[in-house]
Amino acid sequence: MAQVIGNSITDFQEMVFDRILGEEGIVKSLVVYPDVDFLNATPTPEQYELINNPYQLIRKQVFPYTKAITKNDEIKPYITTLWTGFRKRGDHYISGTFCFHILIPETMENTTEGIRYNYIADRLDSILNKDFQFLERGDIERVPEGYIGHYIVFKTLDLHTKDW
């Protein structure tokens, strides 16, 4: 039997974002900047609020769709996503591919954890590779001016029905 991932792609996206935003290291890497030691830095009250309520980042810094970051956007780290190739069996989606685009301002690239986008991609891999097949990752060639970018791609596994 194929892995059933939900009646809607929105259900699936919410499950994935629950995992991502439940990972404090990823949240801190997005909101505690420009600190080089973002994991151990004392957050500002505004940053602390975002760490404790990470769903506030949805559609502000973490996008459930591909968003073009422009010079009008605030200079900060972003994660955008691409969801593609989803197939259905009956009323349920059973497979598809999703890609995270991690965009980091060049001035915030260096951290005590290494390159900030590598830290985020490594954490995404760690929390998602138990249930999803890692396909690839690498640098994004075309990014907004002043940013560097990295991507990581996963595919749902056609294995067994899972309880998320």
Structure description:
By secondary structure, this protein is α+β, with helices and mostly antiparallel strands. The chain has one domain (9-156): STM4215-like, CATH 3.30.2000. 26% of the residues lie in helices and 29% in strands. The protein is built from four helices and six strands. The protein has helices spanning 9-21, 24-31, 45-52, 116-128; strands at 78-89, 92-105, 110-111, 114-115, 132-139, 147-156. The strands form two sheets. Strands 1-2-6-5 form a four-stranded antiparallel beta sheet, with helices on one face. Strands 3-4 form a two-stranded antiparallel ribbon. Strand 5 and strand 6 (147-156) form a beta hairpin. The radius of gyration is 16 Å and the shape is globular. The mean pLDDT is 90.
Structure summarized in a few sentences:
With 164 residues, the protein is of the alpha+beta class.
Question: What are the SSEs and their pairings?
Answer:
Elements: H1 9-21, H2 24-31, H3 45-52, E1 78-89, E2 92-105, E3 110-111, E4 114-115, H4 116-128, E5 132-139, E6 147-156
Antiparallel strand pairs: 1-2, 2-6, 3-4, 5-6
Rg over CA atoms:
16 Å
> Which CATH-level-2 architecture?
2-Layer Sandwich
Distance between the termini: 16 Å
Instruction: Tell the overall outline.
Output: globular
**Would you report the number of β strands?**
6
Regarding CATH, which class?
A: Alpha Beta
* Major β-sheet annotation: 4 strands, antiparallel
Spans of 5+ residues with little confidence (pLDDT < 50)? Answer: none
Q: SS-based structural class?
A: alpha+beta
